[in-house]
Amino acid sequence: MKKNVGNCERIARVVLGLFLVSLVFWGPKTLWGLIGIIPILTGSSGNCPLYTVAGISTCKCNKDS
């Protein structure tokens, strides 16, 4: 899998995902916070399927290939 998410965005996705998942335990305590798993997975893998479909890449490592 090619990476299409840059480093700064990866960090932001993981932090946002952890915040959303924490809402399951400390916030309104609904299961909607589990949607935070998606940004955690895309941030940790460095690949976003929506970016692939749209042809977007924020990763500088794939600019020359």
Which bin fits the share of residues in helices? Answer: 40-55%
Number of helices, where a helix is a run of at least 4 consecutive DSSP H or I residues: 3
User: How much β-strand is present in the residues?
Assistant: under 5%
Shape: elongated
Uncertain runs: none
* Main sheet attributes: strand count, strand direction, barrel closure: none
Average pLDDT value? 91
End-to-end Cα distance: 14 Å
The assigned structural class equals mainly alpha
Q: Report the radius of gyration as a whole number of Å.
A: 13 Å
Q: What is the element string, with H for helices and E for strands? A: HHH
Layout of helices and strands:
Blueprint: H1 7-26, H2 37-45, H3 49-54
Helix pairs in contact: 1-2
Give structural attributes.
0% strand, single chain, 65 residues, mainly alpha
Commentary on this structure:
The protein is mostly helical and 65 residues long. It has one domain (7-62). 54% of the residues lie in helices and 0% in strands. The protein is built from three helices and no strands. The protein has helices at residues 7-26, 37-45, 49-54. Helix 1 (7-26) runs antiparallel to helix 2. The chain is elongated.
Characterize this entry briefly.
With 65 residues, this protein is mainly alpha-helical. It contains 3 helices and no strands.
